[in-house]
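Notebook B, p. 112. Complex prediction, attempt 2.
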Amino acid sequence: MLGLKQIGGRLAQLIFVLWAVATILFLMFRLMPGNPLAAYIDPTFTEDQQQILMAKFGLDKPLWEQYFIYLGNLVQGELGDSFFYRQPVFDRIIELLPNTLVLTFSSLLVAYAFGIIVGAWLAWRRGRMVEKAAIPFVLTTRAMPEFWLGMILLAIFSFWLGWFPAGGTRPAGAEYDSLFALYTSADFLVHLTLPALTLAIYSQGLPLLLMRSNMLDVMREDFVTMARIKGLSGWSVVVRHAARNALLPVMTSFAIAVGYQIQGNVVVESVFSWPGLGRELVNAVSASDYPLAQGAFLMIAVVVVLMNLIADLLYGLLDPRVSHA
Amino acid sequence: MGEALLSVRDLQIAYRVSEGEVRAVDGTSFDVPAGTITGLVGESGCGKTTVARALTRVMPGNARIAGGSARFAGRDLMALPEAEMNRLRWRDIAFIPQSAMNSLDPVYRVESQLNEVLIQRGGMTRRQARARAEELFDMVGIEARRLRDYPHQFSGGMRQRVAIALALALEPKLVIADEPVTALDVIVQRQILDQLLELQRRLGISVILVTHDISVVAYVCDRVVVMYAGQVAEAGDMRRVLTRPEHPYTMGLTNAFPDLQGAIGILTPIEGAPPNLLNPPSGCRFAPRCPFSGAMCQHRPPDVRAPEPGHAVSCHRAGEAPALRAAAARIETWAAMA
Amino acid sequence: MPSDATLAAPADRNLLGRIFRSLHLPLGDPFALVGLAIYALFILVAIFADQIATHDPTEILYTPDYDLAADRSPGADGFILGTTSLGRDIFSQLVYGSRSALLIGMTAAFMVALIGTVVGLVAGYFGGLVDTVLMRMADIAFGIPFLPFVIVLAAFLEPSIWNVVLAMALVLWRDTGRVIRSQVLSLRTRAYVEAARVCGSSDLKIVFRHIAPNILPLSFLYGSIAIGWAILTEASISFLGFGDPETISWGYMLQDAYASQALSTRAFYWFVPPGLCIILVVVAGFFISRGYEEILFPKLKE
């Protein structure tokens, strides 16, 4: 197993990075031109009323004091109130996070299942026509703007063929007892399909190319040759030995892809009006709802940093050369 | 000596390369009698490893069997359908690789790699496999609890023992060991060879031991096949071949290695390098490096002669062997070739 | 390695040839050649946009009978790719879009490659505290969600295509920096660098004469990927409405189409071409980076 010391070190690094990101964010929001309360303050407010408001939000205090209050609040999960919703930012974010996570994980699971299998298959067909044609094709899917792909799918499957709804997570007016009930409903699945497919098509390239090149490397290893000399079945040789070894770095990349996807979701969520963190961030920034924008940004950053850490730990866990050193 | 367990005749293996086709093995013939250790010895590139791998029929993608046969227990390995060949693999013909580090899968415990063979190829139940694995580890002198370890947790010598245990798992008739001790230091080399010899005697199996090291041959082999440039230069009883070689190349090889019992004489290398097999010499392939080559050697490939039953030598001047041996023992003979 | 050959070769008298060679263009790889050809095509289009475009891309067009020339299909009334719902010529927008795409792509790639290379060189060669500080900065950059960062930045600054370049320069040097650092670490121990050090060469000279030339292909590799990144990011930002409304870009065109209900009217001629252009330029970068990979890691060629 990985040493506690190493895990401790990585955790310390995680906290350091989060602190730095929070600080950068604080500076961005406070030092940028314009009154942070501009969107909140009604033009009819008197000077006095404005001062009262400034004081209420702590904006009358010196910057360093504001910074420590901000950090102190962050540690307690206190992200302030949204200007627009007039409710705690934290509650709003926790409400939206599951939508984003469901979209991210479902699309990545599809992408990885597809990418791993096809990547392994392409390695096996090394040098054939299908392999030569597939590589530029896969690179092309990596070069697509995700939102554009979403637009194409929307135009074809929603507006033209009418097979799928144009956005959201549920039919208008539909209510569900719980998130679980929503996520397991057929309606939800129908709403999920297009955005998840969009993200999956974009994401499958990474595991596919990674798996292919790893497979090509592993197939040259002595232990794969030995597996054949042992007369093991083709399945054992290709899957149990070659693919299992080639899979290690691909699994690690899954965690990184989650972190990456969650920031990229911003655009696709907007295209499909998916009520997730990314779309909320865009809306909050557009509406100058700074507390909400800040909160959404931080939440996304937490997921990114956490996933980078998990990727590290996962590698140690999956590779016996590290875990049983 | 009875019927040979394996009888290789005129084997031809070709590699496709960008410049054309290389006959890495070009008309190799030798016998492996049952219950013996046969050394396959030669410089790197002489085709010994290619022969060993050809016997498993697991070869690099650019290699093909271009001719000849290898009769094993009455069946020609080179002509068997793949499915039947696969049934023979490991159950009848097992393999010990040069580097057990790279040939054991790093992500599985040694136990599961043994189980894989015992269950999938040996048809054992999990319980039987467990007992057999412990028995095998006991045979090669490793504690049974280490079955739970991963390959990287073993030392080099221990890993080679694991490789031997793995090879013996299904009680094969023939074990092909490809440079099994080359990567190890000398003391461990001797331990592993002792182990191999002891198990071979105890189980009565046949072993083909591929090596470039004539002292390894001298230490464990019953018979020896000396290969040069894809062909057999000389083959026969190990003591007979090494003490009274008939082929100048064998004479050179025995000069180039420390004495079998450890007494170190003057080592005399054979000057030059093996020929390019894309375009081999038209006469004897060793002629360009041979201190005794004559006009005939340059033009006509030598026939195989049998000075006595079970001994084969491929040299035009094999008849003059005693005189050549005397000359070959002198360092000046070889130095003149430099 | 070709870079070694460059080092050893006598000084090229032809300046243009020297610049060309210093780019280490991967001309041996068919993929890379295709990529370079695509770039060449778009560069020509960008340069001669005024000549190629049939209309002013921002002008609202009317038919001879003073009707708004809106929602025209491709080919109708001489509009090669049709018009937008506001009566602007799509083909001309596409042509001018290549200008902003290349401008953003090239500058951002240059910034990313430059900053990443300098950081990697300095961190890898000097090590110690400098290395620690720079690598912790890279850790932080890896913790910043890139697209949200660009959005926030774009929202605070004046709308401009340079926001994307700035954001990339601030964040995306991290990958290049890390990779180049590890390359420098391994180069530093090579015999010829050791030899130069023993002979008393200055650090600056060793870095620039012996190490930098060997990592240039790596910088170009990351640079050619960054071009695509920049164009994709600009498109996303424009699509979300944080772009510069004064500049015609492919992302802006897509935003315009999306907001004007082009999806429900199935005006594919409007939103398909900008996407295809983005794909072409980005994939060209990928192809070229593959070429650099073959230079750097020739085993892939086998």
